[in-house]
Amino acid sequence: MSVLDRRTVLAGALTVTTAVIAGCGRDEPSEHTDTPPPAPQTAKAAFDRLMAGNRRWVEGNLNHPDRDPDRRQLLARNQQPYGVILSCIDSRVPPELLFDTGLGELFVMRTGGLAVGPVVIGSVEYGPMTSGTPLIVVLGHQRCGAVAAAYKALREGTPLPGNLQAIVEALRPAYERMDSPGADPVETMTRIQVELTAGELRSNNDLAPLVDTHALSVVGAYYSLDTGQVEVLDGAPA
Length: 238
Fold this sequence. Notes:
alpha/beta; Beta-carbonic Anhydrase, Chain A; 5-stranded mixed β-sheet; 5 strands
């Protein structure tokens, strides 16, 4: 069975129930007076929704959508998020806040410096593979402590203690890819790590067929701690 067939089978059992839940959820009042639009069904619509939320975050004009007890109850048995976010563990980079989203909108995975492995990649694949989630965003950020520590360890040849060294090894390809570190090698390495991770997801055996048929987009992005703005590095859906 192909990946598209598997996704169709897995999604079929969820379609009717989640459509009803999503529809009910959008008809219920939220904390904000404006009723949010229906959940995006395409990568472009999902991407536009996230970027609009980020603009509100930057401007301090947040909607705080779908975060009340009614929404919680509606989602208690089913969910159908329209986006997957892979971001860093940094406490200053909470995806749900910086995209101004509510309950049930995003699958979120967070690892130090966007370090990935089979479990993380499997978690990222879950939404697109089981319920047709159309968008993945790989989100690096300014002044990443994990990348800074990995860069220093690799440059000096000094391993980090315990399992922190696993993060260093996961970031080694980004370090080795730097032709020139530039004025700020940590920022350079962070951006390369985003691009490598996004590229790996686009080309893996399970997600590539979805990307090829435009059922899924994988976006590489970078978050500024100074401004709160998300900058798109590559992969924005047309």
